[in-house]
Structures are given as structure tokens and as C-alpha cells.
Design a protein that fits this description.
about 20% strand, single chain, 7 strands, 7 helices, seven-stranded mixed sheet, globular, alpha/beta
Amino acid sequence: MEIILEYFPSLTEEQKTQFSKLGELYTEWNAKINVISRKDIELLYERHILHSLGIAKIMRFNSKTNVLDVGTGGGFPGIPLAILFPETQFYLIDVIAKKIRVVNEVAKALGLENVKAEQRRAGTFDDRFDFIVSRAVTNMPDFVKWVRKNTLKKNKNEFPNGILYLKGGDLTEELSLFPKAIEYKLSDYFDSAFFETKKVVYLPLKYKL
């Protein structure tokens, strides 16, 4: 929990309580349904929660923003972002039902009324959102194909609507098709060695009929 407060010192008391509960909740649920690797559960706050919040270092969502989290797994990055932005609506999807069960139970335990989670596959629906977030579920060309029809036309935030993607490593080849993509190094925001190769990729997506 201390690592969250180090980089996000202005949390409300409610947010502090919600973040502090995540460790116990995920440890309990992970023992029943494996949504986080066994070696990572002890590093939950750094490798999953703070990593998810890397998006918040790039974008501060305005109220009434709608965000789609694709391939959320156990709720990352959606759950930490939903705590940080209580007036933003988050729709978390994953193809694996048991993972969505964990997400719903965690959101319920935290009292997160701005989270909706469902078993659903990206690319199979036309709902529209201001931003689409994810943590490296596939390569960027395939991801764009999945979600290119899911952005809203009207912009409400500092950046035009589009994708905010957590990814690591050398993305030169992967992003060669997307000249408008911008890479933000998380090592510029977080000191831990874990973030040395981690990035947030922002890609504006033009509204399509």
C-alpha cells in the first residue's frame, strides 16, 4: 500500500481504504480462482495495482468518461483505475467467466458503483466508449482491429478518444503501422526496476460509422 501512496499522495480516505483492501481480497480470491500468478501475488501492489495506475500518469479521466477494459483478467487495469476515478464509468470484459466472477466480487466488496463486468469477447459488439484500456492482451495491430469501432465521436478529455495500452519492450515494429501512437515510459514516473521497460501507448482512434 505504501508504494501507492508514494506516487498518489492525494487519495481520499475512502480511496486509501479501498486500495488497502485489494491485497487481502486478491489473496483470498486467488487461492480459489487463479487470476494472478503465484509469484506475483506477493508483489500485487507494484506489478498489478501501480502498473495499472500508470495510465493515470498519462491521462486524468474527466467525470462522465466511459472506459472499456479489454481482457481485464482479474480486474487490471480497470479496478485500480475505477478506485482512482470514481466519477468515471468502467466496463470490464474478459472471455473467461471465472475471472469476471472475481472482478464482480472485488468490485462489490469495495463498493465500486462505477464498475460493470461481463464475460464478453472484444470485437463482437458495437458499444462505444471514450477510451479503451488494456494490459498487453495481444499485439497492437490485432487489438486495433478488435476495438476500432468502439470509440465515441465527441471528446471529453485532454486527449482525443482512443486506446491507452500498457505494454513492455521494444514496440518499434508493432507500432510501425500507427504513426500517431505515442509511447510514454513508465520509468519516467515510477522508480522501481520493474518499470524500466514498461510503457503506456496512447493511440487516438477516429470515430467510425
